[in-house]
Design brief:
alpha+beta, OB fold (Dihydrolipoamide Acetyltransferase, E2P), five-stranded mixed barrel, 3 helices
Length: 119
């Protein structure tokens, strides 16, 4: 009987531990309350953002960036893929690099890095 009780206790403890730990997928989800600005207001002007380059997608002229919260858009921190505008030289970017950049989102719903700051 005591073995059964230990087994049930261990199972319950493990289930509680696993259910409370954030998963990799959870860490990449955006809080739905964090993004409050309508898309139409996001595309008016480029805004400043900071983040870390996670991957260079040279063939598509895009980069994956884990950015800090973008206060101007009321957007939480997350990883996103950004297109690069014509003024951004992809050869100056590398994975792991921290960047400060200007970004905008035209009505197409794409996110574009229009300029790198401090380079």
């Amino acid at each position: 009987m005591s073995t059964l009780i230990k087994l049930i206790g261990t199972s319950l403890f493990s289930a509680a531990l696993l259910s409370s730990a954030p998963t990799f997928a959870d860490s990449h989800k955006m809080d739905p309350k964090a993004h409050k600005m309508p898309m139409g207001e996001m595309n008016k002007e480029a805004v400043s953002a900071k983040g870390v380059v996670k991957e260079i997608l040279a063939d598509a002229n895009k980069v994956k960036v884990h950015h800090q919260p973008i206060q101007a858009w009321k957007m939480g921190a997350m990883q996103m893929t950004f297109e690069l505008g014509p003024e951004v030289d992809i050869s100056k970017l590398k994975a792991g690099q921290t960047i400060h950049f200007m970004t905008k989102s035209p009505s197409t719903g794409k996110f574009i890095i229009t300029r790198l700051l401090g380079h």
